[in-house]
Amino acid sequence: MKTMRHGLALILAAAMCLTSALALADDAAEIEFFSRKSETVDLFNEIFAMYEEGNPGVKVTQTQVPDAATVLYSRMASGDLPDILGVYPNESDFRLQAAEGYYMDLTGSEYLKNINESFLSGIEVDGKSYSIPMTVNGWGIFYNKTKFDELGLKAPATWDELKALCEAIKAAGYIPMATSFKEGWTVGHLAENILLNLEGAEAVNALFADSGVKMEDSALFQKMVDWLDFFEDNSQPDSISTDYSTAVALFSRGEALMLPQGIWALAVTEQAGMQDEIAMFPMPNDEGNGMIQYGIDLAFSIAADTQNPEQVQDFVAYLTSTETAQYFADREKSPSTINGVKAVSPQIEGVTSLLYEEGRSEPWLHFNWASGVDGEWQQELASYFVLHDRAALNENLDEIFGK
Fold first, then answer.
1. Could you tell me which of 300, 264, 313 has the C-alpha nearest to residue 86?
2. What pLDDT digit, counting tens, does each position of 62-73 carry?
3. H runs (alpha helix) in 2-40
């Protein structure tokens, strides 16, 4: 009987523990993490699980949706901001939103001391910090190095070399470029990089700022559209209906030998089953010293009205720790802003090395534009690939840039 009572006591004790655990789970503080980057969803879910293991009173859920920017702006308007949200702190939209009080003032936060000061100072708003930058991006052209070597091809440095390369790839029975013109952001990035390498940032910024120069009359802008046509002509036949993930898969299967895209696509090519060795080169130019554009890529802000400020701050401190940031960098591969963290990614060094070479990199051109203009630019360029109406493109962009 004593043994039976002892066994019953153990069962009751276990039941009480289970009930307590369930109550804790029910009472757990839930943090919504709104991601702007589809490439990092699985990786962040891993990190959330590791955090929750040591913090059973917190549950982190991730939201990642198509057209994330539009959804986020809608949630701002309805007063339903996620606790932590992906932002692009170099852009004018972010500065405006920070000034309007949507984001928590993080100035002086202990975890910001883990971040390289040079990256923080460039994204302050009125001298205050409203975001946590974690990685830096860069844009270029991925290429299948294995197949290039097999075919006796080499990465181009000039426009003429790029043209000859595309002809050689087609002659070998492959698609030169995997592009995703269905998505405006990919077209917008491509167009900016073409412009930068046609005449440099100063001339391009002057074009957009000068209200007296129409797009129709700008030889620079018309040459950019010619190059957009070139990229389409050397892409898969359905490029205007191809989205980002499909283009990455086309490249990863070895059907297309180049992928014009940012360094953020590296991890996705691996997830898509890329077996061949890959590398990157910058957009070519006439001189053979192509430039890249860069900016803060992965960054987060905290909603000013979060209902769980202590738990959110603790989680952000975990994200920005050297250990977590290194775990992220080892898998995502982008250059990190966190002190002491290094991403080892030789595949993208053809682009990332230029971040440290004088005169070979410029901040994204759209950082200088008024709020909302970048989205309109992307939309008009994507529409151009559907309609191929250059006159309409000229006219619509004149209106957008106040010409």
1. 300
2. 999 988 888 998
3. 2-27
